[in-house]
Structures are given as C-alpha cells and as structure tokens.
Specification:
single chain, Rossmann fold, 2 domains, six-stranded mixed β-sheet, 8 helices, 10 strands, binds adenosine-5'-diphosphate, binds magnesium ion, nucleotide-binding, ATP binding, ATP-binding, ABC transporter domain-containing protein, ABC_transporter_ATP-bind
C-alpha cells in the first residue's frame, strides 16, 4: 500500500551537506558563542556578543531584550541568512551554521503573498518542500478551521483583519515541515485584546502540537505565560544577562497570571528590563 509522500527510498536529503542521522537526544537548537558586528560608515558596531542558548525538543523558549539588541539578527543567524563572526549553530546535534532551510521562520513583519489565497499561503512551505498540494490543502483546511479561519480558505489576505492575517501567517509557519519554529514578535502589531486572544490561541495550539519554538517578544507577561525558559538579553551589544526557568506546569491556564510566583517573576523581569532600558543609548 502507498504510504503518502515517503522519504524517497533512503536517499539523503537533497539540500545541504550530507547530514548524519539526526541525534534524537540532542537539543533541537544549540547556539554557542555567537559574535556578530555590522559595519556602519567604516565603524564596526558589535551587535551580539558571546550568545549561547538552547531549545530542547518540544520546548517553548523566549527571548526578551531591549530594541536593537540583536534579537532579529540572532534569528537571521540561526536561519542561516546571516553569518556570525564567531560561534556555531547546531540543530538536533548537527552543525548548521550558515545553512538555510532548517527552520520555520515567522519574521517580524510577516507577509502573506497577496496574490495567493489564504489556503495557498498556508501550504506554501510544504509546497516548496515538494509535498502534494491536495494533501497539504486538506491539512491546511483542518488547521484553518481550528484557527477560526474556516470559510476563508479561498479569501485573499486583504479581505482579512490584521489578527486573522497574523493567524494565517502563523499557521504557515506551523505547517512548515521544519521542526524548529522561530517566531519574531509575532503579536507586536496587534491591539491588546487581539493580542491576548492570540496568546491563548497559540498556547492551546502549541500544547496540542508541541513544536520546538524560539520566540522573541517585548511582553514579559507573554513570555511567562508561554515559555518554559526565558533568556534575558542586555542592550546592544546583546549578551545573555539572565536565564529564567518558568516553573508552571502545563497545560497553562490564564489563572497562573495571578499566582504570587508569576507576579514575583514578572517584577523581577520588569526590573531587569528597566535597568537595561535605562543604560541603553539610542536603539536602532
Ligand atoms: N544588515 C545589517 N546591516 C547593518 N546593521 C544592521 C543590520 N541588521 C541589523 N543591524 C543593526 O543591528 C542592531 C540590532 O538589530 P536587530 O537584530 O534588528 O535588533 P532587535 O531585533 O533586537 O530589535 C541594530 O542596531 C540594527 O540597526
Ligand atoms: Mg527585531
């Protein structure tokens, strides 16, 4: 019997260097000792210094830090779009520094393609990886329904509200075949109410579908609600200031935001962020 798209008779993956079997015990992502500078008008501006962090398989991990401290740059490095000056990126134990195509990435300004229907936007990453369209569509429809976008499969992005577009962009990242998702401030453009709806939605979806996630946010509460661990970055050049393990069990409930330990962590993180902001010159 045919088993759907099979991994092609044991051939190695087409792209990238010949990769060994992924090590299932290794973390989904290991970033170690990353340094990066950009040059501006002949001056070298350090943006990231000695950044190391880990996302274990099926873990939700967040990064918070002041604007301009290099968070998006770190994502570009992890995604292989930018080469670090020093340091290494490993996924499932294999070195992937400078290699593209290993992550599912939702950039800070997620752009749906205006000429593709919502459904066709959502299946894009699968399509690029050679999945059969009809099968990808079927799965996309199920997720669109769960995301409250049922009935909008054939609509075009401009016909949807900002929050709905964001959910579609998020589903596109979720349905991408790569195991590790990088989400760069996915809710920052939304109004407060839509944002908190989206947080709950993401939490539910993630608890059902446990991907490995690295998430950038400015919202301390959002980071605490969603993450198992939070990395706190300094102002530019971004270095790792603190690592916070978030002790609340899953599934997480919104009531946890009233728990004394939640409030304590929130105060602590806010204090650190205020200190960094106060030190910071002009970001950007
Ligand atoms: N390609 C680039 N060339 C030059 N400078 C850059 C480039 N990308 C980012 N920067 C600079 O690096 C710093 C960090 O940017 P970014 O990673 O976007 O910060 P964050 O996402 O934390 O706000 C900023 O000062 C930004 O202007
Ligand atoms: Mg950014």
């Amino acid at each position: 019997m045919e088993e759907g798209p099979s991994p092609g008779g044991g051939h190695p993956p087409v792209s990238g260097a010949p990769s060994p079997e992924p090590d299932r015990d290794a973390p989904a992502l290991e970033v170690s000792g990353i340094f990066k500078s950009f040059s501006r008008r002949g001056l070298s501006i350090p943006v990231l210094e000695q950044v190391s962090l880990t996302v274990k398989r099926q873990e939700f991990v967040s990064i918070i830090g002041p604007s301009g401290c290099g968070k998006s740059t770190l994502f570009h490095i992890i995604g292989g779009l930018v080469k670090p000056d020093a340091g290494a990126v490993r996924m499932n134990g294999a070195p992937v520094t400078g290699q593209r195509g290993s992550v599912s990435y939702m950039p800070q300004q997620p752009a749906l393609f205006p000429w593709r229907s919502i459904e066709d936007n959502v299946i894009l990453a699968r399509e690029l990886k050679g999945a059969a369209r009809s099968e990808a569509r079927e799965e996309a429809r199920r997720w669109l329904a769960k995301a409250g976008l049922g009935g909008f499969e054939k609509a075009y992005p401009h016909m949807l509200s900002g929050g709905m577009q964001q959910r579609a962009a998020f589903l596109r990242a979720l349905l991408a075949p790569q195991e590790l998702m990088l989400l760069d401030e996915p809710f920052s453009a939304l109004d407060a109410l839509t944002r908190s709806e989206m947080q709950r939605w993401l939490l539910e979806l993630w608890e059902e579908n446990r991907r490995s996630v690295l998430f950038i946010t400015h919202s301390i509460e959002e980071a605490l609600l969603l993450s198992s661990r939070i990395y706190v970055f300094s102002g530019r050049p971004g270095t790792l200031l603190h690592t916070v393990e978030v002790p609340f069990p899953r599934p997480r409930r919104e009531e946890m935001t009233e728990h004394p330990e939640f409030l304590r962590l929130k105060r602590q993180l806010s204090g650190w962020m205020r200190e960094e902001q106060a030190k910071g010159g002009n970001p950007g």
